[in-house]
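Re: beginner question about structure tokens

> Can someone show what the tokenized structure looks like for a real chain? I only ever see the sequence side.

Sure, here's an example I had lying around. Input first:
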Amino acid sequence: MSAVSLWSRWASLEKRLRKAPRLALFLDYDGTLAPLADHPSQAKIPAEVKRLLARLSRRPGVWVALVSGRALRDLKAMVGLKNLCYVGNHGLELQGPKLSYLNPAAEAARPLMKRLARELREALAPIRGAWVEDKGLTLTVHHRLVRPEDGVAVKNAFYGAAAPHQKKVEVRVTAGQSVFELRPPVRWTKGTIVRWILARQAALLGEGQVLPIYLGDDLTDEDAFQALGPEGLTVAVGESAAWTQAQYTLRDTASVKRLLEKILDLRRG
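And the corresponding structure tokens:
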């Protein structure tokens, strides 16, 4: 079943959101809360959206987590709100109220990631617009600003550095919107961390007490859509809507803001 516009099903979804004893709201950052930008440092969350998150996190029965590919320290610095759960590096690290997690396989792979960051910076130095982001537990090669004719050179440099370690199962290779990524050799995704969080909430609150809602715009968010399935309410934002496993779609970050406003109004009641 293909995804449909969330607003086309709003009447039934509104009832579901109103009746749920508790909501667990999982939100990607870039492209979902903050408009995409040429450089990650320019992807700022609008002040109105930040206020919405703060107000939602204070509502009884609403729990808010930001789930991002960014490093945990970067995500916390960009948002700067208390009472939220921050999930960085696609779920490999987490900090929040009464929750903390650091994936041991990712921690063990730090020295290799540091070495690969140096190799990739050297290989990509001649290619204008390509750069390496060292996120501690993972590496991201950004090529949004690379000229189209240099795209193959970026890909060759990336896979040239990654291939020997990929063959020895020392790294995992993934791709997203204008990025290539190196991760530690563990099958731990945004979907895994969402299930991990929900299992702990179930232990505290009881099964069936939480309605999970996940909004994201990237390939990496598909893991969470798949992990939640019909149990949750999954929403693809923007271009990913064409091929997503989510149940519903929203056009852009402005539509996400509108949905958050409606959820806040419902939970006030």
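Each token stands for a local structural state, so reading them left to right follows the chain. The longest strand covers residues 210-216.
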